[in-house]
Structure formats: C-alpha cells, structure tokens
Specification:
Layout (H helix, E strand, L loop, with lengths): L5 H15 L12 H10 L4 H6 L5 H8 L3 H9 L6 H20 L4 H8 L12
Length: about 130
C-alpha cells in the first residue's frame, strides 16, 4: 500500500528543482525515471518558479519557457501547472543552470555577467 500523499508525490520533482537551483550540488535526479516522466506529463506547478527566481533570473526562465514574465506571474498566482513542454524545458534549464554554476565555481555573479556579455564566438550575441 502506498502511504505517500498525493501532495508529496507531485512535489518531489519540484522540490528537486528548488534544491538544485542554488548550485550546491549537481546531483543526478534520484527519483525513479517513471516518476519523473509522470510528473513532467502531469505538469510542474508554476509555483516552483516563485522559488527558482531567487536563483535563476525570471527573465531567463520566461525566455526559456516562451512566456512573458506577466504570464508566469499569473500562472504562479493562480497555481496553474506548466504544460508538458514547459515542464521539460524547466527541468533542462535547472540542470543546465546547475552545471553552469559548477563551471563558475558557484559564483552566480560571474555566471550572470557571462550570460549578459557578448561572445565573439557567438557572433557578438549573448550566450
């Protein structure tokens, strides 16, 4: 018999996002693949973005998800879930953010400076 509540089941991947975003650890997802897939199919609650924006700039999250900041704020306020594609993109963004933070030795300020600088290798565009 499964004694884990529905709330705990649906929040485990979201909690993993929030735990990973500060860059303290780039651990692999310890949840079973079937559970991750199910949570992505069900959609991640947009409220997780409220926590993530303390680590990852909201403009970066909005650009990655193809949403405006206003739309994200409305989704958060109304506790609306992201669709499958947006949930998957958010997972990819958080994992990439963590790897970038590790590359920059946990220095969020340097990472943000790099993200906002023009790169010659990228034809003078931002990364």
């Amino acid at each position: 018999m499964n004694t884990v509540s529905t709330e705990e089941n649906t929040s485990s991947l979201s909690q993993w996002f929030v735990n990973l975003a500060p860059g303290d650890s780039c651990a692999r997802i310890t949840l079973p693949a079937s559970k991750v897939q199910q949570e992505l199919r069900d959609g991640i609650d947009a409220c997780v973005i409220d926590s993530l924006q303390h680590f990852i700039p909201l403009t970066l999250i909005a650009d990655a998800l193809g949403l405006t900041e206003r739309t994200i704020k409305l989704k958060v306020a109304n506790q609306i879930k992201l669709n499958v594609s947006q949930s998957d993109t958010l997972l990819y963004l958080v994992r990439t953010w963590c790897k970038l933070l590790a590359f920059f030795d946990g220095r969020r300020d340097i990472l943000l400076m790099w993200l906002n600088s023009e790169a010659r290798a990228l034809e003078q565009t931002q990364p």
